[in-house]
Write a structure and sequence with these properties.
212 residues, mainly beta, Immunoglobulin-like, 2 domains, 5-stranded mixed beta sheet, 1 helix, 8% helix, flat
């Protein structure tokens, strides 16, 4: 009987130890804190519009590794306000020209700001030049051009690499430029609107022609 009495406390202690010592943390872990906003990327950092014309800008907050962050509040401001008005809608804003001049639209997320410079004018050139594959890179340079309706954009190939110009749901019919590695080709735009295009060979090689 003395042996039985001496073993019982050890059995109870072992059971308590196996159950975690009779209470405390259930073993769950707290979720990591939300990532801090390190930068804010804008869908465009420059824009040229006419009075009463509008353009939209979208802000994307990112963490220190460049990953997009969701669920963050974007605050939009414009200064000076007399050149353009803004209509915020969450992460996007519509900018409408009101008078000729220049203004700056700012998106701020948790103290981190990004800026877009907006020019409002009635005067647009009737021609523009775009280099395809400038410097041997998979880019259109510049990637954004503005012209008046009836104007022409000349695409010139550089670097000897094959690229094309393929329009993405344009507001009016314009000809695609097939694969080529040299030379140039002109495209005339009779109808106002935003003409987005890309090279279908190289991902991320995009451009825009805005016709006013």
């Amino acid at each position: 009987m003395r042996v039985a009495k001496s073993l019982l406390p050890m059995t109870v202690i072992s059971l308590l130890a196996a159950c975690g010592g009779g209470g405390g943390d259930s073993g769950g872990t707290n979720p990591p804190p939300p990532a801090n906003v390190s930068s804010v990327a804008l869908s465009k950092t420059t824009a040229t519009i006419k009075p009463t014309e509008s353009t939209s800008i979208t802000a994307t907050p990112k963490d220190a590794n460049g990953n997009a962050l969701s669920g963050r509040t974007v605050n939009w401001t414009v200064s000076p306000a007399g050149v353009a008005s803004i209509t915020p809608n969450g992460s996007s804003v519509t900018v409408t020209g009101t008078a000729n001049g220049q203004t700056q639209v700012t998106a701020t997320v948790e103290g981190i700001a990004a800026h877009a410079n907006v020019t409002v004018t009635n005067t647009f050139g009737q021609s523009a030049d775009v280099t395809v594959g400038a410097g041997g890179q998979d880019i259109f340079d510049p990637s954004q051009v503005d012209i008046g309706a009836g104007g022409t954009v000349t695409f010139s190939w550089a670097g000897g690499v094959t690229h094309n110009v393929t329009w993405q749901s344009p507001p009016a019919s314009v000809p695609n430029i097939p694969d080529k590695s040299s030379g140039s080709q002109q495209v005339t735009f009779a109808t106002a609107g935003t003409y987005n295009y890309r090279c279908t060979i190289h991902a991320g090689m995009n451009g825009t022609v805005t016709v006013h």
